[in-house]
Amino acid sequence: MSGPRILRCHVGVGPVAEGEALVTDDNFSARYDLDRLKGIFSRPQHKLHGQSYVGKVLVVNTAKGGVASAWMLHEMAARGLAPVAILFNRFNPILAQGAALADMAICDRFPDGDITRLIQTGERVKVDPAAGLVTVG
Amino acid sequence: MQLTDIEEAMARGEHGAPRQWAIAHMQQVGRAFDAADFVEVHQAHIMADTESLGEAGVAFLERLGEAPAADRRVRVPTITDPRGIDFAHYRKLGQTDAMAALERRAIDAFEALGVLMTDTCINYQTIMPPLPGEHQAYGDTGVVIYSNSVLGARSNFEGGPSALAAALTGRTPRYGLHLDENRRGTHRFVVRTRPRDLAEWGALGALIGRAAGSYWAVPVIEGIDGPPDSDALKHMGAAMASFGSIPLFHIVGMTPEAPTLESVCDPASLPVREIGPDELKGLFGEYGAPGEKVDVVVFAAPQLSLVEMQQVADLLDGRRIHEKTALLVATSPGVAADADRMRLTERIEASGALVLRGMCFYQSYAREMGIANGWRRLLTNSAKLVNILGGYGYAPSLMSMADCVDAAVRGRTP
What are the residue boundaries of the structural domains of chain A, listed by start? Predict the structure, then answer.
């Protein structure tokens, strides 16, 4: 794939954000999956195990786990060890609530298809949650 | 979102800065889920352990607490989920004075807001269970799934910030589980086995949660022959929510919104998935560890009811846990007070075990505790706990309460 592509999505939460994509078809929970002190995925079964999410536009399938992520995104962002944005096929209330407190960009519901297949790791991504637009490349 | 006059006034800051923040926060969330308006809630339940809050979260609470009393007091009864510290035992567990100091600051901030520090994830068994149709803003996925499913309440998963926003305003955005259309069954399961203990009920919940697999899925379950008890559905629901992010299930002929299959779904349109003894055994197999040294045995997630406290006490009577193995039992401060009075705590702790009040282990710096104590192999009868702790550097195993106690005494798994 080459040239910028524009992907539509539902209105999300948070400010405009830009970064390099880190993509998986696995799911996301701040409590279950991350070593938040080191800024890496730590659950051995996770497909991004060992990889850093710091400063990335994380692209995942859905939100998993409990309510803790709602505080944790804020705490991670305050220490500068957070993704700049997270894109989901479908998020849940906890991630929306966490992004609102953390002032982090998140979006979901892409009518063009599976977002974890529409973006590749390493691509440059700009996320505009209020407009419901994601620009790739 | 459509706002009422009082909500508009809060949004303009006429009810103080905390309520202005709360409305703005909930409007952002409401927009993401196409909420038409707010719905009034009767209670809020806040998950806010200091491991999740961190310094940034505690400072945020303290800023809210600096507002004038009239501006900062919560508007509906507001209670808390388990905390990170039991002040009586934190040093023994390898937790630090810095963790305790942060916990103290968080408690002071919540008390300034008028929050009741119940420190429990079993409020539906112990504090004030919701009524059918009652809208709530509950944190803790186990609380939400039990209250929605078994008691017919209406709550989304409310993370700490949103539960706090609901507490300050007495309302929450009307989306998700507050709406009839999102409470219909989306997945059918037929259970071909009868779980024998709490670990097996949890395993059943884990399998259903994993298969249904999203916040927007509502499992409809048939084949459960006669009601189990509240602790069984507590473990089943907590595991389902943990493995699948599921907020609601129906058991046909048992839970209040499912008198019949047809009342909660269109049966012909949904494929049926069967769960039998082999599937249950398979789940245990994923977390098996035969003949291994055991570092720590944990009963928690959810906190133990008074009935479970008695079961643990009965299993431990006259026995001594292995010198190289720790046994931790987490319950609410309220249940612990009863357990003290009925000498259950004394009987449990005579074995060398520790009863922790207001904690739930995984919300309590589990990673740091594991490193400080050299804990790796962990046994529990909580399917929820084995699901969480892999990411915290533990090798967790799932077995019955009786097998867990035997292993704690021998220092090895069977």
Answer: 5-136
